[in-house]
Amino acid sequence: MMAFDIKRLIRDNVRDLKPYASARDEYVSDGSEKVFLDANENPFDNGLNRYPDPQQRSLKSILAELRKLNEDQILLGNGSDEVLDLIFRAFCEPKSDNIITVPPTYGMYKVLAGINDVENREVILNANMELEVDNILDRTDDNTKLIFICSPNNPTGNRFISSDIERLLNSFEGIVVVDEAYIDFSRGKSWIAELENHPNLLVTQTLSKAYAMAGIRLGICYGAPEIIAVLNRIKPPYNVNELTQQKASQILLDKNLVPEQVATILDEREKMSRALTAIPYIDKVFPTDANFILVRVDDALQRYNQLIDRGIVVRNRSTLPRCENTLRLTVGTPEENIKLINVLKTI
Ligand SMILES: *Cc1c(COP(=O)(O)O)cnc(C)c1O
To answer: Distance (Å, rounded) from C-alpha 97 to C-alpha 101?
Structure first.
């Protein structure tokens, strides 16, 4: 096993890049009153007339404290989608590098590979929806830069076996990205705790799911300062707007709201899983560590359309490998879940 060498992984153009220095980068406010005539802003104060902090220091300090990390281990983006795109752009040379994804999984990794003109090597999960670690490692070569693991996985709902992810981290010389969009619903613990042991680990999280803030678009990437510094060099200067920074800080500092909502969602998840098991045409209710439940039915398209006709929209995941005739059901409010179960019983 070779040591992790970030210089080998970074694209040449990114390594040599001189980042755009914004007005707010060149002069960092120390909080004391100044006359700011450096950024061509409208000077009349309405709370938003100034550019936001490009390094999002205040928000990062809140996250650093919550996650027990340093601010230089945190990158913020306009949703996870931007964060994931930055990871591609930093490390993957178009037309020559490749990545590995493990379908059935989140579709954005493949889309981003396409946009960035990077080969996507797919290693399908086994019949238990677990990682095929040996097959994944066999498919890597000198041009494999990234492996994307979504845990808990969307759309299957399971979290992956820790020792499988550990083996990837120990054996792969590129970067393993663990997407933890659903970690707050999981019985397993976050890989953030393992960052100090694995220089090639990146963990992504989001405020879009448990934190009830999909509308503000805030994605987070945690990793070694060396990697985070590379991503910060290439991000658009003002990628996280002022309203998002303020709203994100507010929700993160509220110690009660999100944990209470998550507890309710978890209760509902268990109730729903039990109720779904009793429905005759549901052949399988997949175990879940997320805020959704994958079910296998007799005829997914027919059931999907019957639900739509009764005003309920779910996701048909049947085109994904190992997901024939499956629907993905998000856990809603108690009232919504009762409605879903009642409708499922009558169709
Ligand atoms: C929903 C989801 C995200 C969140 O993306 P945002 O751009 O932050 O809203 C990320 N990864 C997975 C697997 C998801 O399901």
So the answer is: 14
> Cα–Cα distance between 109 and 138 in angstroms, integer?
20
Give residue 1's pLDDT: 44
Q: Which residues of the chain have pLDDT under 70?
A: 1-3
Cβ contact 330:291 at 8 Å: yes
What residues are in contact with ligand 1 under a 6 Å CB criterion?
Answer: 79-81, 106, 150, 154, 179, 181, 206, 208-209, 214, 219
| Upstream peptide bond of 152 is cis (omega within 30 degrees of 0) | yes
Residue 34: phi and psi, rounded to 5, are: -135, 160
Handedness of CA 292, 298, 299, 302 (dihedral sign): negative
Whole-number pLDDT of residue 23: 83
Sheet holding 74-77, edge to edge: 74-77, 219-223, 201-206, 175-179, 144-150, 98-101, 119-122
Ligand 1 mean position, distance from CA 220 (Å):
10
How big is the chain by its Cα radius of gyration, in Å? 22
Ligand 1: distance of its center to the CA of 201 in Å? 18
Q: What is the pTM of this model?
A: 0.97
- What does the chain come to in residues? 347
Nearest CA to ligand 1 atom 13: 106
Query: At 122, phi and psi to the nearest 5?
Result: -100, 125
Contact status, residue 124 vs residue 131, Cβ threshold 8 Å: no
Residue with tokens 């019957």: 306
Measure 208 CA to ligand 1 centroid, in angstroms: 7
Say if residues 74 and 222 touch (Cβ distance below 8 Å).
yes
The CA dihedral of 329, 330, 331, 337, to the nearest 10 degrees, is -50
Burial class (CB in 10 A: 0-12, 13-18, 19+), 335: exposed
Specify the pLDDT at position 27: 83
